[in-house]
Amino acid sequence: KGGAVLDSTIDNNTTGILLAWTAGGAAIDSTIDNIGPSGGIGGGMYLDGENTLARNCIVRDNYAAISGGGVYLDQDSRAEGLSVINNTARYGGGMHLETHSGAIKCKVLKNNAFGVWSPTAYYDGQGGGLFLSISSYAIGCMISDNTAGDRGGGVAFAGYNEMVSCVIDGNIASYYGGGVYADGGFMAHCTIVFNQANGVAGGGVHLKNGAAVSSSIVYYNSTAASSDNWLLEGGGNWIHHSCITPDPGAGLDDNITLDPRFSQAGTTTKHTLKRSSPCIDAGMGGGYTYPDYL
What we know:
Largest sheet: 10 strands, parallel
Structural class: mainly beta
Shape: globular
Number of strands: 36
Number of helices: 0
Strand order of the largest sheet: 1-3-6-9-13-19-23-27-31-35
Radius of gyration: 18 Å
Strand content: 35-45%
């Protein structure tokens, strides 16, 4: 328990879970790559417990048989400034955030959540970049060019989780939610663009069970069917004060449908708005209280 890995390189091991702490500990300024195959979770790094931290590490080319191909966080652990690249698992190809855990200013790129065939169905393959469960959160992250065999090419939510000020772009899901598949949860001030769902729904976001999007840009996404930017499954879902087309609120939720006018539209690396963008100062104003950890 406890301890630290500082300014180190750990690679080419075949152990399953690499860094597991249950009462504090840290991995800082280190590179962790080519670890696996893991027997279950946390292909490169496993962090468990309050005051457990990973900061400014590169986690790449790792594999977990079940979840968290690069990183698995649990029980209030936290990742800051990680580069999580080219990792693989069934859930959370890049990172799995569980039980009040968080990712802050991480780059989650080119990871894969692979699906598994059964005799009757195709399942798993959720959250190519991130998989969030049980009140976890992502803040200020870039989640790009990830893939999922089923849903949530960039991000998948299981239950209530929160994502704020993240860029989700260039991700692909084989079926649902090219950018984000949210089974509950809340997103605000996010840019969700140039994602693709190869199934029937939600190239940008697929929302169900009361999921909500606020003050975000959801644009330029695609699917194999007609719901390019969004799909709302069931009741209680809400998209408001956002730039999105068509308007899911039918003019009632202060959305705008005009082109957001990026200065470099068509790229998946930079989404700066032009001065003439209708999105500037169009998000939700005062009166909303963000969580304490922001």
